[in-house]
Predict the 3D structure of the following.
Amino acid sequence: MKKLAVSVAVLLLAACSMNNTAGAKVPDPEVRLDQTSTMPGAAEYVTGGIPVSFRLSVTNRASIPITLKRVEVANVGETGGYTIPQTTVPFNLSLAPGASDSVNFTVAAVNSGMNVTGNNEPVTIRVTCRYDTTEGALQTVVIRQVSGIR
């Protein structure tokens, strides 16, 4: 249990860092991930892929346009209602300075079978967003806990 806590803490610290070739003059976009689907009770008995839908909201805090090019999602740790193998989803979402928008996407999750409350148990997900800007490439990494429970 201590190893898991230390691993999660290290991952959180690493995720707070960014890889920004656009230089310090381009502020990180604000990113929010929400799960938009719930798992039916029968999903507990499925051994293959289970579709899980998300909404990624992005706010451009820079004074230049940015374009969301790619989103990578994956589980952090092995707990939660399901696991998501590292999955990459391409986008081409342009955001003017100060603008906000969102994209929806669905990934194939796998029933972890290690939960008490079913597949809607909260899951911690690492989200890596890659952008193009006129100043160069930009990447942000955030960790969010999502759940199908409303």
Summary: Helices lie at 2-16. Residues 40 and 119 are 8 Å apart (CA to CA). Residues 2-146 form a domain with the Immunoglobulin-like fold (CATH 2.60.40.10). The chain has a mean pLDDT of 81.
